[in-house]
Amino acid sequence: MLKTALIVGSGGFIGAMLRFLLVTAIRPLHPLFPLATFSVNILGCFLMGVCVSLMQQTPTSSIKYFVVMGILGSLTTFSAFIYDAFLLAQQQAIGLAITYVIGSVIIGMLCFYFGYMVGQ
Q1: How far is residue 10 CA from its own chain's centroid?
Q2: Spatial distance between the Cα atoms of 112 and 106, rounded to a whole number of angstroms
Q3: 112 contacts 47 by C-beta, under 8 angstroms
Q4: Helix axes 2-26, 35-57, angle to 10 degrees
Q5: Each residue's pLDDT tens digit, 16-58
Q6: Which parts of the chain fold into alpha helices (H)?
């Protein structure tokens, strides 16, 4: 259990750093719409689809924990998504909030599927 926790935590460190760097680079591109979180979540959905697909072919628990739960789980934190949607709604930007939530879910699902198919 401790070994698995350390594997996930190591991947989580990498994912968190990647998220920080990507968000820092993307955030200035749009002042209101949370483009940074949107972009990171969509990228994460694609990468998760690829990894899940590839892991079915050669399932290795340590790699799955490190990459899927650690790196990608940390990279694509859902709480940041919900927080950004909440902030938009709080700023009375309801249309943007709805666009953000629906766009993230639909495009994320499509990217996950596309990534899964790439992994096949």
Answers
A1: 17
A2: 10
A3: no
A4: 140
A5: 999 999 999 999 999 899 999 999 999 999 999 998 888 887 7
A6: 2-26, 35-57, 61-64, 73-75, 78-90, 94-119
